[in-house]
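Summary for the steering committee. The consortium agreed at its last meeting that each partner would contribute one worked example illustrating the joint modelling workflow. Our contribution is presented below. We chose a case with several input lines so that the handling of multiple components could be demonstrated. No manual editing was applied between input and output; the record is shown as generated.
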Amino acid sequence: MAEHVRAISLKGGAGPSEAAVAHLEALLKAGTLQAIMVPRRSADGRTYAHALVTAPAGLRGADPFAPVMPASCATALSRLTKLEAPKGRVGVVMRPCEIAAAIELSKLLQVRLDNIAVIGVDCHGTMSVQDHIKMRDAGKDPKDAMGTDLKLHREACLTCDWAEPQHRDMLLGLFSEGSGHLVLAAEDERLLAGLPEAPREAVTARDAKVKEVAERRAKARAEVFHGVDTNLQGSRAFSAHFGTCIVCHNCMDQCPVCYCNECFFESQTFRYEAEKMLRWAGTKGGLDMPTDKHIFHLGRMGHMVATCVGCGMCTQACPVDINVGRVFKYVASQVQPMFDYKAGRSLKDPLPQATYLEDELEPR
Amino acid sequence: MTTETREGKGSGDESFEPVIVGFFCNWCTASAADLAGTSRLQYPPNVRPVRVMCTGSVDTSFVLRALLEGADGVLVGGCHPGDCHYVTGNYRARRRLAVVGKTLESLGLEPERFRFEWISASEGAKFAEVVTEFTEKVKQMGPSPLREM
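What follows is the complete predicted structure of the assembly.
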């Protein structure tokens, strides 16, 4: 079934965020959606967090196009649906990378998509929470600043794999904003609440923007990957890259696809008698404390890189400024094609580690 | 690719005896090792064998841990396709361990130090051959720089 494409005119002076929120509010009021999960301004106004909203009043401060992503919505969606699917329909506003993570989590049985309306947004990219807070404190508008300065965008966003949201039940097509319209699309007409047909120029403008964004991101991705391929090679380079790591495991905690209730790397396997550590200290010329920094990063790669969606939440969560995501995204780009797999691409592709072919890989 | 080695023991050093950790399936490669022994086949004594119930139980972190904690090479031996005692363990191991191999390769962490082979219980000769060849190769590569990470 094809999507119906509608639009909200922005010529009355409302911005795309206001227009989108007004539409979400209408869906709540009409009872089309029982609840909506959407990024909402934090209490201090300096950043955003996902909020589950059941009444229009809860949408105050909501912004589907928030320029910052402190946590992945896929994690929030897992929290919401892990035990049971909601009985009424819940609209969940997600960026393309968050949808990709939700697809992986659904296959990992950590997310139930029944009764979930995926409201996919066109995403310009996001800045780091730290930059966002700095900018707010300085009285600047983060969105305006991001529009003119690509340096403010997180690397994961600059190198994003998706130019538009896939697997969506509804689209909030921000990329049409230049035409003075916000394009919305959905197969289910109820989600469009009687909006008028989108003017042709709005659709064309959006298509052009999607294409431009896809090309820009592919180019940036190739550059970053080339950098890893040439500079981040060998044990010394790896140790240096993760040199400041304090083994806090925040990258794992915030990774949307790292779903284990207890991480193997936090298990008793990695608790040792003093004698053992003293012996290692002798053979290794001093033992870095806390121990197991490298096995944590490399081992985590071994466990989840086949489902890594490259959202960069690991980098965002790092308190000591390590670009964790760059390494994971690069390794993912090498590992996933081995299995003809692309994390987030399809609900139907089986998880690489949950299946096999008799005639593949080495040894044969 | 890094070429750093432990002091005084560069690659090609004849006195260097590599440590190789072997994860051998109980139903095939571990028996092949016994067979090689009882058949009096000669092979280098560098492998420290660990018997596992199936290569399907070898987690990616086993291989990485061995390399990071001092092994110069890791050899995993399992049943030929179709012969797994648990039907599909070896196929699953192949997928899982391919991720380790590719991860090491992507980051220039000497993937040649990791090897996965099918060696059945009757292949004592193949066991001796693989161990000889792999030991020789790791010896050529010199001590692993990964232990210093």
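Strands of chain B lie at 20-25, 47-52, 73-78, 114-118. Helices of chain B lie at 29-38, 60-68, 89-106, 124-141.
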